[in-house]
Specification:
This protein has 577 residues and is mainly α. The chain contains 23 helices and two strands. α16 (358-381) packs across α17 (392-408).
């Protein structure tokens, strides 16, 4: 029997055209023009008709496996009908109709032959999938941020500034050359992003925080396809899972954890913002924005002074700190902690079947040392400097918050530009280390630094193996940790040399802080970012890109590795040290 096409190309093209139409209407402020509304209604009707044809063909199919689930059919048809309302209430219905249009586009597109061939090629090269995926998202964000309605002056951001902001949001950094906040008390001379621009930034943060590999794998799973072996291995390295069927379960857990944490954080922040005097609508929007930005360790804020106005509010500071820490720990550590008998008992623990492994112990130990060590050092060094004038409780709270934020997030409740050089140097070390594997932050990762110091300890003690907690670390892991740190230092030094050439008027410590902050995707700055030259901005963009993906991933994407014959050479004698 002839098999009907359940995803005709016209349906995919129409859905794509409708998505472009929605962004053009919002981006060029065409919502109240009759021609645009008529075009939207026509596209919506065409989209609905093509989807109805696809459903009708599948309904006539004799094969049960070719028929779509009833729930999926009702959901998609019902949501697509919202697009027809754009002719009457364009702003509301047009925004709502974007959801079903994207749903239809993605769900049908992943089943087309061209998508299968293209993604299959990238699946065999996960490093290239990561690089090309992040680059595509950054490019799309750049285009959207240059649209007129992206800024409050209706002129759109310049290409370089839009590229910088898009890269900063996608790489969850937080550095910005334009104002994200409606109030421009921090940089009154800069262009400010509008509500449309802020939504684009927020979407980029969410996509960048979840990660291209995770999103691509989720699309494949939703499309009913199996992941290639190399993709399973790459995701297994990211998620600390085996390459078996647990990957699909891990992906679902990541989305659920993200939704729960961001929702719970937004509710707490909403209460705090209402209590601070914000109106209900503004408080809700700000709470959602900051919850997503904090969990993804992005550091973007809707307030001109970042979170300085809330430095005495424990609810805001502790909620944001908790979101930063949980987001930076990584899925594997969070799943282990919540499946242990610390929080769950009996059947829940047996279902997960996990114990505190070496990875979790290493992440917990290094994270704890960084958090509380940074708090103590910041409190001591800045007691009579940037923390002067605060009460003892506020000093402790501010020191703890900056210790949390300095590793990955980029939020601040005190003026970073007023920090002493010693504190800035400590923060640079914290930013270089960053978050943990599988988390939403950057840096060389806590486990990398932990393994590196264990290797140094083993060398000093003249022990052949690197070990901890009664377990031995494989030599490949040790070599990878040393290589990551060596490559990262090389990248930072090279970028710093470029910045010194592009920004001769800036001080060395300001440039060094900016470079390390960009590489660690942190987003803290001493106030230099808005005044960078074009060359300096492009260097920072490259650093954020490399820092988010990791230097090893970038190298694997560029260098073509070919398996060859394993050859063991004779030992060479060489003196080092």
């Amino acid at each position: 029997m002839k098999k009907h096409r359940t995803h005709p190309p016209l349906l995919v093209l129409t859905a794509a055209a409708y998505v472009v139409y929605v962004f053009v209407c919002f981006g060029f402020e065409l919502l109240d023009r009759g021609v645009a509304r008529a075009a939207g209604s026509l596209l919506a009707a065409l989209l609905l008709s093509q989807y109805a044809v696809a459903v009708f063909r599948m309904a006539r199919s004799a094969r049960e496996e070719e028929r779509p689930p009833l729930r999926e059919t009702v959901l998609e048809v019902g949501l697509v009908l919202l697009s027809l309302g754009s002719a009457f209430i364009p702003r509301v219905f047009l925004a709502l109709s974007l959801v079903p249009a994207l749903h239809v586009l993605l769900r049908r597109m992943v089943r087309t032959q061209a998508w299968t061939v293209g993604l299959g090629y990238l699946e065999l090269r996960p490093a290239r999938l990561l690089v090309s995926g992040f680059a595509a998202v950054i490019l799309l964000g750049t285009i959207l941020l240059t649209l007129p309605s992206a800024t409050t002056d209706h002129g759109g951001a310049s290409v370089v500034d839009a590229l910088f902001t898009s890269a900063s949001a996608t790489c969850v950094t937080g550095l910005s050359v334009l104002n994200t906040a409606p109030d421009v008390m921090a940089n009154p001379g800069l262009v400010t992003f509008s509500g449309f621009g802020q939504i684009v930034i927020l979407l980029l943060i969410q996509v960048g925080g979840l990660g291209i590999m995770t999103l691509s794998a989720a699309l494949l799973v939703l499309a009913g396809r199996n992941l290639a072996l190399r993709s399973r291995q790459a995701l297994g390295d990211i998620l600390e899972e085996s390459a078996g069927a647990a990957i699909e379960r891990a992906i679902g857990y990541i989305f659920r954890m993200t939704l729960v944490c961001e929702t719970f954080g937004a509710l707490l922040l909403y209460v705090a913002f209402i209590r601070s005097g914000l109106e209900s609508g503004e408080a809700a929007y700000s709470a959602v924005f900051h919850a997503i930005s904090a969990f993804n360790n992005a550091g973007f804020s809707l307030f001109g002074d970042n979170l300085t106005r809330f430095r005495s509010d424990p609810l805001v500071c502790l909620t944001v700190s908790a979101l930063i820490v949980v987001g930076g720990l990584g899925y594997s550590v969070v799943s282990v902690v919540f499946s242990s008998n610390w929080f769950l008992r009996g059947g829940a623990r047996r279902r997960h079947g996990r114990l505190l492994n070496a990875h979790t112990r290493m992440v917990g130990l290094v994270t704890g040392l960084l958090l509380f060590g940074g708090m103590i050092l910041t409190f001591y060094l800045e007691y009579d400097s940037s923390l002067a004038g605060l009460s003892m409780g506020d000093k402790l709270l501010a020191a703890f918050f900056q210790s949390v934020s300095a590793r990955t997030a980029g939020f601040n409740t005190v003026n970073i530009g007023a920090f002493q050089r010693t504190t800035l140097l400590i923060f640079m070390a914290w930013m270089f280390i960053g978050a943990s594997p599988g988390g939403t932050g950057g840096g060389v990762k806590t486990t990398t630094v932990g393994v590196f110091f264990l290797a140094v300890r083993a060398f000093i003690r003249r022990r052949p193996d690197v070990e901890a907690w009664g377990q031995r670390f494989d030599v490949v892991v040790v070599h990878k940790a040393v290589s990551i740190i060596a490559i990262s230092v090389t990248v930072i030094v090279s970028a710093l040399l470029g910045m010194l050439a592009c920004e001769p008027q800036a001080s060395f410590e300001a440039l060094a802080f900016e470079v390390v902050s960009a590489f660690g995707t942190v987003g803290l700055s001493v106030g230099l970012t808005p005044y960078l030259s074009v060359g300096g901005k492009l260097i920072i963009v490259a650093l954020m890109f490399i820092g988010r993906l990791g230097p090893v991933t970038m190298a694997q994407a560029v260098v073509r590795s070919e398996p060859g014959v394993q050859v063991t050479y004779a030992s060479a004698r060489i003196s080092v040290g």
